[in-house]
Amino acid sequence: MNKAAKILTSLLILSVLMACNKDDPSDPIKVPSDRYSDSEGRGVKTIFPNSEYANIITVDTVNPEGTIRARSSTALGELVVIASGQEEEGHLNTPSTAGVEGDYTFQGNYKLINKINGKDQVVTELKELSFIQTSKESISFEKVNFEEADVYFLTPQYTGGHGLSAYAFVVNKDNGEAAPLKFVNHGATTDTLNYAMEHFPFNKNGYLIVTPGTSAGTSEAKAETVQYRLDVVNQYFIAD
């Protein structure tokens, strides 16, 4: 074999080896670390890992501070719940007593603002609150009228395994000022009221009549109602 032929043969062998090495599946393809975001692969990482719904919520995106999550007009102004920081928007990733798979979820720290006389009054803060709803739209408060004041209920979830839990806020009929209410029942004080889904609390003879949520296997028809007396001055609903 002459010298030219040897060189040609060597080049041919080298090109074959390079082609084989290129197609070798054992040689991993390098993918830039920023090519796929965490939200595309596994959902945005939550900053509320201890939420009671953490294991059934996938966070899809983050909404900016000031996002409105609930609002209702009052006689002299408006009550508005806004995110006091970034709000996590997501969905339920599995069916549960909290809702059906795909329901919209919103988590964050919120402020209740009372808009009155051209000013924004911060009524209270609602820390690490989770909203679960069938729509992305902001929700409304439910109003119960009393002689001395109006009471507005905020229910963050639309369903539940043991009834629903609502926050309550009293609005003075004369000046429009608002304040959060607590509930006192048998010596226990809570920030929220539990009530049966099919029986929203109502005013009867000046008392708030509440049918508590029930556990599985218990009929709501057999649940005993509780009546609460409104103490506007001390900002309580007190069970009799």
Alpha-beta classification: mainly beta
Global morphology: globular
Largest sheet: 10 strands, mixed
**DSSP helix count?**
2
* Helix percentage: 10-25%
Strand content: 35-45%
Topology:
Blueprint (H helix, E strand, L loop, with lengths): L2 H21 L14 H4 L15 E7 L4 E6 L3 E7 L3 E6 L11 E13 L2 E15 L8 E4 L3 E6 L9 E9 L5 E8 L2 E3 L2 E3 L6 E3 L2 E4 L15 E6 L4 E4 L1
Parallel strand pairs: 10-16
Antiparallel strand pairs: 1-4, 2-3, 3-5, 4-5, 5-6, 7-8, 8-9, 9-10, 9-12, 10-11, 13-14, 14-15, 15-16
Mind explaining what this structure looks like?
The protein is mainly beta and 240 residues long. The protein has two helices and 16 strands. The protein folds into two domains: 103 residues, no CATH class; 100 residues, no CATH class. The strands form two sheets. Strands 7, 8, 9, 10, 11, 12, 13, 14, 15 and 16 form a ten-stranded mixed beta sheet that branches. Strands 1, 2, 3, 4, 5 and 6 form a six-stranded antiparallel beta sheet that branches. The longest helix has 21 residues. It is globular, with a radius of gyration of 29 Å. The N terminus is likely disordered.
